[in-house]
Amino acid sequence: MNIKKIYIAIIILAMVLFLSSSALSKCSSSVEGNNAGEHGEEESVVEDESGDGAADDRNGGGAETEKDYQIAYFQVGSEESSMHFEHRVAKIIAINPDGNDENIIYTDLNEKYDLSRIYGVSPDSSKISCRFYEGGRGAYGSLSVIDVTNGEMKAVKEFDYTDSESMDMMADIYGRPVWSHDSKNIAYETVINPYADNFSNGGISIVNIDTGDISEIDVNMEAFSFENEVFLDPVLFSADNGRLFNILNTRNPKMEEGVVHGYFTRNEKLVAADISSGAAFEIFDISQFNDMEASFDNFNLFTQQNKIVFHVLGDFEEDSDIWICDSDGSNLTRLTDDAELREQQPSILDVPDSTGLITYVGVGRYGTIAYDFNAGNIYIINMDGSGKVKIDNEVDASKPIFSPDGRYVAFIGYVFDEALENIQSRQIVVYDTWSGEIRIVASGSGIFDLIGWIKTTN
User: Fold this and answer.
1) What's the CA gap between 269 and 288, in Å, rounded?
2) Which of 75, 155, 270, 427 lies at 20 to 30 Å from 393 by C-alpha?
């Protein structure tokens, strides 16, 4: 009897193991089949011009972006309750990438001065840097920060001349202030007498947005000699926030028969300055780009690889391309070379591995409407220039910006009148790199600019 019981127990155990193994096998096959199907679907909907597949999911994010981030844009209109000139009122509006849950993050309706310009979203997506301005004499200006989680605004640097009659030696911000990578500081350049012929450089400062403490960078410019007035316009912090990259541009007189008829500025170099010591050194010079009448701008940094991405924009019919180099200026490489396009406005997806992405605008050449408004088609490439993807939007577009997980690219589209001479309205558009879907999430004549991706409070 004991032997029989042992045999029965063995048979029962064998059957249980067999059934469990069969169930696990079916479950594994089902999961593998689903994953394979999803991967195949992604590849089929994204148009990859070179076959390298730039627009894939880098961080497995999609749903997280829907939940945790929104697109912010700048809208300007009028309301009778506004006390601003012509009842002007500005708003920062946020909306989900699916077009739902639109809400007002901030409005200057009850502010004394105009919210006049948006500078950028902090790297942690929690704050927006902007400018407030007094629209009468221009006697007030401020660098301010808006917290997107609660809508609170804080002026971190003010230029207040409202009580001055002469406003002699007044100062203001020159160029576009830039965020440090830890989202704690903003660097900006000051211009003295900004509305006079004798305007001059007021130096570079860094403000801590929490404490309001301001420190000036005493840049050592002995290595650079110029006959004209020199400006250093901050464009980028180094990955460790210890250095500041600046465009060095010169103020040059417009001469006609020996008489000065105004001034113009010209990009000359990209210069890095040590924030602590002020020691400065050249990264590259404009002459390295075929000596054309060009300027460089839209600087981005892949922090893990220490590589700088930017565009070099030639005048009128001259070429424009996206370039990349190491943070010390070495390995300078042109990433785009389409003779029919002026590639510009690069924006990056900064990820920990070596597969970072770049999105940019390809503008048709030869003085077209697209060139006049710096708009065209949106493209995506890998950081080595491979895997080009074209986003086939129906209207000219500009300012593409990746969502934090890389699933979406938001950009602004332009709707022209029948004569293709004036912009009738603007669109906030989202491209889904997973499905290839293009969705207009907001549109209207009051939309002024796309700001970027911000954290939500949901």
Assistant:
1) 10
2) 75
